[in-house]
Specification:
The complex is a heterotrimer of chains A (about 80), B (about 290) and C (about 400).
Chain A lengths: L3 E5 L9 H5 L5 E3 L11 E3 L10 H5 L5 E5 L8 E3 L2
Chain B lengths: L4 E2 L27 H15 L6 E5 L14 E4 L5 H11 L4 E7 H7 L1 H10 L3 E7 L34 H8 L3 E6 L3 H12 L5 E6 L3 H7 L5 H11 E3 L16 E8 L5 H13 L13
Parallel strand pairs in B: 2-3, 2-4, 4-5, 5-7, 6-7, 8-9
Antiparallel strand pairs in B: 6-9
Helix pairs in contact in B: 1-6, 3-4, 4-5
Chain C lengths: L8 E2 L8 E6 H12 L3 E4 L6 H14 L2 E4 L3 H13 L4 E5 L1 H6 L1 H10 L3 E9 L5 E5 L4 H6 L8 E3 L4 H18 L2 E7 H5 L1 E6 L6 E2 L35 E3 L13 H16 L2 H4 L2 E4 L6 E5 L3 H14 L4 E6 L1 E3 L3 H8 L4 E5 L6 H9 L4 E5 L9 H12 L1
Parallel strand pairs in C: 3-4, 3-5, 5-6, 6-9, 8-9, 14-15, 14-17, 17-18
Antiparallel strand pairs in C: 1-11, 2-10, 6-7, 8-16, 13-15
Helix pairs in contact in C: 1-2, 1-7, 3-5, 11-14, 12-13
C-alpha cells in the first residue's frame, strides 16, 4: 500500500525531469501530454510505491510538484493541486 | 496523465506561503537549478520557524538576482554587485532583521567581489547564498571569475584560460564564520545549511552549484540540466571540514561539497559595541531601533 | 517650505548642538544632518569632504546612530539606501571622483524613491583634478549624472551657516518628495570657518518620513498620494513588499512594458516638476531697475557680491540673483527677469554649465554672459566686473 501521495501543478511544470530522476521509488515519468506552455509534466506510473518523502517537491525548481505522507489506506492517486 | 482528483483541503505545497505565487511561473529556464535552491530556502524558513516579517532577501542583478522578486518577504532587487552593501545598511539600521543576500557568482564575486571580502572581514551579520552557475547567464553566457579553465563561453569562444576563484576559500580567508558548498542535487544538505545560517550570527556564505542548461551546459556540450544534476550526483564528494584550499573546482573534476567552516567570531555590532563602551562608557548611546515616524 | 500633507515636527534634541559656534562648512553640514535627524552615514574618505563624516564618526556614538566607513563609494552610496529602507534617515558625503562612482545609486535612489541626501564638496576636475582646491564643475553631473530620466533637487550653500540650514532643508525635501537630494558644496565653503548659529531643537522643523498609514495588505509602496509621492513602509514591519530598480508597478513588482515605464517615469519627473515653483529658493537684491543681473551660486556668489558692489560704484545698475536651489532650475524666475533687463552675467567655477540654463530660460529676452573659470581658486572680482561692464553696454 502506498504511504504517500503526490500532487502535480501541471501548468507550472517546465519538464526538467528532476522529480522523475530523483524519486527514490520511481513513482514518476514524464508524460506524453503537454501543458499550455508546451512542456511535458510528470505523471504517476507506480501508484503504490510512493512513500510521501516529498523529495520530488524538494527538487522541483518550479514548485510544481509535492508529496506528502498519508496515514489512511487510500491508494495513491495523482491529484490536481488547487 | 492519470486520473485527477481534488486535493484534500489540508494539503498544500509547503513552500507556497513563502512565494509570491502570482509571479510564478518564474523566469528561470527549464533545467535551471536556481528554483531548486529557492525551494530549499523556503524549506529552511519553514524548518527554522523564522518570523517571516523579519526576514529580508536582498539580491543583486542577474538570474539569481531575480530571487528577491519571488519570495513573499520584504525583498530588494538592488544594483549589480551591491546587494551586500545594501544588506549591510539594512542590517545596521535595523538589527532585528535577518538579512539574506541571495545572488549569483558573477554579481557577488566579480563586480561585487570587494564588498564580499569586506563584509566577511567586518563579520556583518548577513547570510549570503551564492548560486554559482559558472557563467553570466542573464546577459547571454559570458565567462566570469568562476568559469572553469577551458570552458567555452560567449566571451571565451576558444576556452577560458583565466584561473578561477575558489569561492569557499575566498570567503574563509576573508573571515566568514560559516562556509559551505552544495549543489542543486544536495537539496537536503542545502536546506540544512540554510537553516543553520539563519540561526547563526555573523557573516555566513553558502555556495551552491546550479546547472545553466541554456548557456553553460549547451555551449560546453554537457547536455541538459538533468545531465548536470546527474553529474553533481556522481562527482560530488562530501568532505565536511575540508580545508577550503582543497576545494577548488575544475571543469569535470570531483566536486568537494560540505560544510567547511563553522566558527565563532564577534560580529561587527558586538565589536562596535565593545569598543564604544570601552572608550565612552555611559556616554555611549546605542543606535535606537530606527523609526522615522 | 509649505507642507501639503504633513505638519513639520520638532527636531530630536539629541542631535541638535544648540548654540553659537565657529565651524567650517563641512562640520556645519554634519551638524545640519544630525539636527535633521540623520542617524546613519556611510562614507569613504575623499578630500575635501571627509571632515563631514569625521565629525559624524565622532558625534554619532554619543547621539545614537551608526557611521560605517565602507570599502569604496559604490558601497557607501548604497549602504545608506539599505539603511533608509531599514528605517533610518541616512546620507553620504563625497567629492569629485567619489561622486562619479555614486551615480548608479543616485539613479537607484530616484527609481526606488528612497529619501536620502548625497553631499558633494566639489573640487577641481576632471578626474583626480585638484583634490584640495575648489570648483563647481559637478553641477550638470548632479542633474544628469545617472542614466535615464529623472528629476533632481540640488541645493548650493555659500557659507557654513547655510551648510547647516540647507542640509536640514535637503533632508526635508528628500523626505517630502521621497527622492535623493544633492547637497552641492565646494571646497571653499567646506573649509571656510565662520559663525554658525544652531537654534534650539523646537525651532527646527523636520519633515517626517512619509510612512505607510494603511496596514499590510492595503498599502502599496509605490502608489502615489495626490502630490504624486507615495508613502513607504520599512523592512521588517510586516508589509512584505518588493523594491526593484527595474521598471515597476505600484506594488513594486517588475513590469517591463512601455505603459508602466511611461506612468512611472512621468510620475518620478512630475512629482518634482509640479512643485518646482514652490520649492525653488533664490536670494535677490537690487533687481528693481537693474540693467544687468548677476546669477551665481555657492562660493562664487560671494565673489560676485564684491563685483556687484564695484559695478555699482561705477554707476551701473546691477542686481543679484543667488540660487540656493540650482535644481530644479529656477527657470520661471529667470524668464520673468529677462523681460525687464538687458543681460545676465553668470560667473561659475566651471567652463559653462548653469550659464546655459540661464540662457535657455531667458529665451532671447535678455543677453547672457558667462564668466567661466576652470577652478582651483575663486574668480577675481575684477574678472566678473569686466563682464558686467561689457554686458551693461
Amino acid at each position: 500500500m502506498a504511504k504517500g501521495r503526490v500532487a502535480i501543478v501541471a501548468e507550472r511544470c517546465k519538464g526538467c525531469g528532476f522529480c522523475v530522476e530523483f524519486c527514490p521509488t520511481k513513482v514518476l515519468a514524464l508524460s506524453s501530454t503537454y501543458n499550455s506552455k508546451g512542456y511535458h509534466p510528470p505523471e504517476i506510473i507506480a501508484l503504490d510505491k510512493c512513500s510521501g518523502c516529498d523529495l520530488c517537491g524538494m527538487y522541483c525548481p518550479d514548485f510544481a510538484i509535492y508529496g506528502w505522507k498519508v496515514t489512511d489506506e487510500k491508494p495513491n492517486k495523482a491529484v490536481a493541486a488547487r | 496523465m492519470s486520473t485527477l482528483e481534488v486535493l484534500p483541503q489540508e494539503v498544500t505545497n509547503p513552500v507556497e506561503p513563502f512565494l509570491r505565487t502570482e509571479r510564478i511561473p518564474h523566469i528561470w529556464c527549464p533545467g535551471c537549478g536556481i528554483g531548486t535552491t529557492v525551494n530549499s530556502f523556503a524549506r529552511a524558513l519553514l524548518e527554522t520557524r523564522m518570523d517571516l516579517d523579519k526576514v529580508v532577501v536582498v539580491s543583486g542583478i542577474g538570474c539569481t538576482g531575480r530571487v528577491a522578486g519571488y519570495v513573499e518577504l520584504d525583498s530588494f532587487h538592488t544594483t549589480h554587485g551591491r546587494a551586500i552593501p545594501f544588506a549591510t545598511g539594512l542590517k545596521l539600521a535595523n538589527p532585528s532583521l535577518t538579512v539574506v543576500v541571495y545572488s549569483g557568482d558573477g554579481d557577488l564575486s566579480a563586480i561585487g567581489g570587494n564588498h564580499l571580502i569586506h563584509a566577511a572581514r567586518r563579520n556583518i551579520d548577513i547570510k549570503v547564498i551564492c548560486v554559482n552557475n559558472f557563467i553570466y547567464a542573464m546577459t547571454g553566457g559570458q565567462s566570469g571569475p568562476t568559469t572553469p579553465l577551458t570552458a567555452t563561453t560567449s566571451t571565451s569562444p576558444y576556452g577560458a584560460y583565466e584561473p578561477s576563484f575558489n569561492l569557499p576559500q575566498l570567503a574563509d580567508a576573508a573571515g566568514a564564520v560559516y562556509v559551505a558548498r552544495w549543489t542543486a542535487f544536495h537539496v537536503r544538505q542545502m536546506t540544512r545549511s540554510m537553516s543553520e545560517v539563519l540561526k547563526k550570527k555573523g557573516f555566513c556564505f553558502i555556495e551552491t552549484l546550479s546547472p545553466c542548461p541554456t548557456l553553460y551546459e549547451r555551449r560546453n556540450k554537457l547536455g541538459e540540466g538533468l545531465d548536470t544534476m546527474r553529474h553533481y550526483k556522481e562527482k560530488s564528494k562530501v568532505r565536511n571540514g575540508a580545508p577550503t584550499s582543497e576545494v577548488a573546482l575544475g571543469m569535470r573534476d570531483d566536486i568537494i561539497v560540505g560544510k567547511f567552516v563553522d566558527r565563532e567570531r564577534p560580529d561587527y555590532s558586538e565589536l562596535l559595541h565593545h569598543q564604544m563602551i570601552t572608550q565612552l562608557g555611559d556616554k555611549y548611546v546605542e543606535a535606537p531601533a530606527c523609526s522615522c515616524g | 517650505m509649505k507642507n501639503p500633507t504633513r505638519q513639520l515636527q520638532h527636531a530630536d534634541p539629541a542631535g541638535v548642538l544648540t548654540g553659537t559656534h565657529f565651524l567650517d562648512g563641512d562640520h556645519a553640514c554634519c551638524e545640519g544632518a544630525l539636527a535633521a535627524g540623520a542617524r546613519f552615514a556611510a562614507g569613504y574618505p575623499i578630500t575635501p569632504s571627509t571632515e563631514v563624516v569625521e565629525r559624524f564618526a565622532l558625534r554619532i556614538p554619543k547621539v545614537g546612530g551608526t557611521f560605517i566607513q565602507m570599502e569604496d563609494e559604490l558601497a557607501a552610496s548604497i549602504t545608506l539606501l539599505g539603511a533608509v529602507w531599514g528605517g533610518a534617515k541616512a546620507f553620504t558625503v563625497t567629492s569629485g571622483p567619489g561622486f562619479s562612482l555614486m551615480m548608479e545609486h543616485i539613479g537607484y535612489a530616484a527609481m526606488t524613491e528612497t529619501p536620502c541626501v548625497f553631499v558633494n564638496v566639489q573640487r577641481g576636475g576632471p578626474s583626480t583634478g585638484l583634490p584640495t582646491l575648489p570648483a563647481q564643475g559637478d553641477m550638470m553631473q548632479a542633474r544628469w549624472g545617472s542614466h535615464g530620466d529623472y528629476e533632481m533637487i540640488a541645493l548650493c550653500p555659500n557659507s557654513p551657516q547655510e551648510c547647516f540650514d540647507l542640509t536640514i532643508h535637503a533632508f526635508n525635501l528628500s523626505e517630502r518628495f521621497r527622492t535623493p537630494v544633492m547637497f552641492m558644496m565646494d571646497e571653499c565653503v567646506g573649509h571656510m570657518t565662520e559663525k554658525v548659529v544652531i537654534p534650539p531643537a523646537d525651532q527646527i522643523g523636520i519633515y517626517p518620513r512619509r510612512h505607510a498609514v494603511r496596514p499590510p495588505g492595503e498599502h502599496l509602496n509605490f502608489e502615489p498620494d495626490e502630490d504624486l509621492v507615495p508613502a513607504m513602509a520599512h523592512a521588517g514591519e510586516g508589509y512584505r513588499f518588493h523594491v526593484t530598480g527595474l521598471t515597476h508597478d505600484e506594488r513594486g513588482y517588475p513590469a517591463m512594458n512601455p505603459e508602466t515605464q511611461d506612468r512611472l517615469v512621468r510620475r518620478l519627473v512630475n512629482k518634482i516638476r509640479m512643485a518646482a515653483e514652490e520649492l525653488v529658493q533664490v536670494e535677490e537684491e537690487g533687481i528693481e531697475g537693474a540693467d544687468v543681473v548677476v546669477v551665481s551660486y555657492g562660493i562664487t556668489s560671494r565673489v560676485a557680491q564684491k563685483a556687484i558692489e564695484l559695478a555699482r560704484e561705477k554707476g551701473l545698475k546691477v542686481g543679484k540673483l543667488r540660487l540656493l536651489t540650482v535644481w530644479p532650475f529656477p527657470a520661471a524666475k529667470i524668464r520673468a527677469l529677462a523681460r525687464g533687463i538687458r543681460a545676465f552675467v553668470v560667473p561659475e567655477l566651471n567652463m559653462g554649465q548653469i550659464v546655459n540654463e540661464v540662457e535657455r530660460a531667458a529665451g532671447g529676452a535678455a543677453r547672457t554672459y558667462g564668466v567661466p573659470h576652470a577652478g582651483g581658486t575663486v574668480h577675481r572680482p575684477e574678472a566678473i566686473l569686466n563682464v558686467i561692464e561689457e554686458a551693461a553696454r
